[in-house]
Structures
1.
Amino acid sequence: MTTMAERNSPTIDPSPEPRGPESLGHATQVRRLRRLSKLARLLDARFGVPGFRFGLDGIIGLVPGVGDAIMAAISIGIVVEAARMGARTTTLIRMVFNIVIDSLAGAVPLLGDIFDIFYKANLRNIDLLRREFPDAAAEVDSVAKDR
């Protein structure tokens, strides 16, 4: 018969599944960071006019109601991928905070659309990821310079 303490005590698996950035491997981190960086640029800085750049977030966000919701869902996908890469909880919280600011401000008619063009939540989130994974970011940069 087991005692109450035995039933409530945590069990320790002698061979836990590796988690976090070390479990992915450097090459996988580089590929994911490169893909997420391209997505963030598409969303926040793909097009340019003299003086500033904007992306699909600024264009799709013009659609009342659903535009900001669609862009928030895509942005959350970047956060989910960051979690899969092993980003720390504090980094993920900051990323979500950037999306919330972008979505709430973007919901305000006209002024929100202007804010949406200048507040680049996805690029900010990629900067957070680059700080989280500096080795992968350095390799992404070195490959980009070679092109």
2.
Amino acid sequence: MELEARIRRINELYHKSQGEGLTEEEKEEQRQLRKEYAANIRNNLRTQLNGIDIVEKDGSVTNLGDKYGRKEAPRESSTIRRQSPGMSDTGEYKQSFRRRAIAARDNIEAETRRKKDRLIRERLVSLPEFERAGSLGLYCSYRSEVDTRDIIEIALGMGKRVFLPKCAVNDSRPELRFYRIASLSQLKKGYKGIPEPDEEGCEALSGQELELLIVPGTAFDTSGYRMGYGKGFYDAFISYYRSEASLSSSGNLKPVFTIGLAYSEQVFDKIPAEEHDVRLDMLLMDIGEIRISKV
């Protein structure tokens, strides 16, 4: 079975399991399909790692395919995930992985990229989470990220309250501040050249208004972890926003539903993650969607 058909069938079984339930045969099919999909992603990851070399402090060269991708040591990645943020090994690995993932994204041909963007857009706007969200956080695509300009226009056309982030860089912590826009014309180049809302004339996000948050990334994995550009803007915002919802005095606020948009080339079995990294609720790709189980 082709990868796209496999993901489509996995999603069909997931939705059926949440409704009428699965037969024993379907449960076994679901287990087998997930196993095959994980193996496919794992092989993709090994291929990526084989092309990354790290120069150690003593001048020796370590190939990450040898260090983390061997079949006989598949648990290496989970060990990395639990390392503390200050460990240099994790930082160097993440930087190398990030560069490799961005290169894979950059190398997608223009026509292929347009087709992938269209598929992602169509999948996103047909999701029930998108349809019922009155207020949502989006991003304006930067460089080779999944294009979102048409998605923003569609959301605005549906009468949704659309908020986009502005990066605030200070000494204490990275901070995303969201502002409501009524048009793409309200954007200007901001941090690192990223299109951001012009604070003047844009309404700032207030309280727990967002029902849906759509985020970019350089790499993602099937457990819901994402990798950005290294500053931690989205991890900090999502952690704060979720904690505010859980501490709400009313007790009836639902945490914002988070979706990462990615080309299939950006998705791996596991990416290097640390304790402060947050997990998304869904990964949406040109070839399908993955709903993340937090159990």
